[in-house]
Amino acid sequence: MKINNAEEMIPDELEETGIRLLIVADDFILSKYLQEHLNDFYAIDTVNGIDAYQLVLDINPDIIISEVIMQEMDGIELCSKLKSNYLTSHIPVILLSAKSDNEQKIKGLCAGADANVERPFEIDYITALIENLLVLRQKLRERFSEHFNFIENKNPLKDHDKTFIEKIEEIVNENISNPDFSLKHLISAANMCRSQLYRKFKLLINSNPGEYIRNIRLKYAVNLLHQRKYNVNEIADMSGFANVSHFITCFKKNFGKSPRRYMESQSSDVCSTLKIKYCGISGTERCNTNAQAQSVFRFSPRRVRKFDHLRL
After folding, report:
1. In Å, what is the CA distance from 175 to each residue of 170, 197, 241, 249, 306?
2. What is 150-256's CATH number?
3. How does pLDDT run across 33-91, given as a tens digit for each residue?
4. Which architecture characterizes domain 3-121 according to CATH?
5. Among residues 184, 181, 152, 158, which one has the least CA distance to residue 241?
6. Beta strand pairing call for 3-4 and 43-47
7. 20 phi and psi, to 5 degrees?
């Protein structure tokens, strides 16, 4: 695997499956030691403290190991800047401390570090720590991506990452009915370059921005279907799909059925619920139920009367 030095500020791109590790250290011996023991497992970039922040923005590594004591910008300050920037807040940071007291460790954790390791350390411990942080990030990504399959997310990411997703979702929702709103417009509105946006989405929700826009549109379409006020053509248009056939194809791919079948299945569920609630009630209550069925579920009077004979 290729090892870059600090002078190569924009290294060659890796394959999508490659894990990129950034080592930030003024100490050449420490940097070399980590490279020698980890470069069989990860693609490694190395940089000193003063150039680290810009390099992180350029390459968006998967994980960072940083020395704490450095000139110009120390590891704690670097970590704090990375965690306060929504472009980099998702990247796990391991700080290597030369002090045995807890004060520096506490400062590192307060800056948002994911781990603080005291020097000297065993390389096996560092390797295990890297693997654990990467596995944890993958699990969080999988849980967070459930949100885009319209399942309630019970394990949100950190505040900065959540804020980023909420900001992007707000941008898409503001343009939800605009069929011309595309990935190009999202990149411009988010003030990010294409590669940064793609990598951020991949790391946070294991998806890409194009799929995200489509899922938000489909989520909006489902809400419109539940309102039972519009036909499929109207919902496709209101959700920003220029072509109703494309809307139906995307909807069926996500939900396993067409919008019309989806509406029919919802009606069947309503019928079952109404049967249970309708049986055994008084005449006055039944009249109220009739009115509710017609107004809320848009059942015709004839369809409502078919429940009149039901008894427990």
Report:
1. 9, 18, 12, 21, 43
2. 1.10.10.60
3. 999 989 877 888 888 888 899 999 888 888 999 999 888 889 999 999 999 887 788 89
4. 3-Layer(aba) Sandwich (3.40)
5. 181
6. parallel
7. -105, 120
